[in-house]
């Protein structure tokens, strides 16, 4: 359900899940495919209902005000890249 929500949201926003974006950190950069980002996010939050609900709630708020969900995706992806050491 969580994965389906994010996949649907990004697709509805016109984002191709095979498109890429870069996370640039002081010592390295990581190129992420949107589809891989979703898979990593689902895996990292597996079993953590509270975190998943907070992420979903934030996406809903951003979408409600017609904000740019890509900024939030990049924010989350930066945390993933740092935590997984990509």
Task: Supply database-style keywords.
86 residues; two-stranded antiparallel ribbon; 4 helices
For the termini, the CA-CA separation is: 26 Å
Task: Summarize the main sheet.
Answer: 2 strands, antiparallel
Order of helices and strands: HEEHHH
Q: List the uncertain runs.
A: none
Question: Strand order across the biggest sheet?
Answer: 1-2
Give the count of helical stretches: 4
Proportion of beta-strand residues: 5-15%
Shape verdict: globular
What is the number of E strands? 2
Helix coverage percent of residues? 55-70%
Radius of gyration: 12 Å
Overall pLDDT, averaged?
Answer: 95
Number of folding domains?
Answer: 1
Which structural class fits the helix and strand makeup? Answer: mainly alpha
Report on this model:
With 86 residues, the protein is mainly alpha-helical. It has one domain. It is built from 4 helices and 2 strands; from the N terminus they run αββααα. It has a two-stranded antiparallel sheet. α2 packs across α4.
Short overview:
This protein is mainly alpha-helical. 63% of the residues lie in helices and 12% in strands. Strands 1-2 form a two-stranded antiparallel sheet.
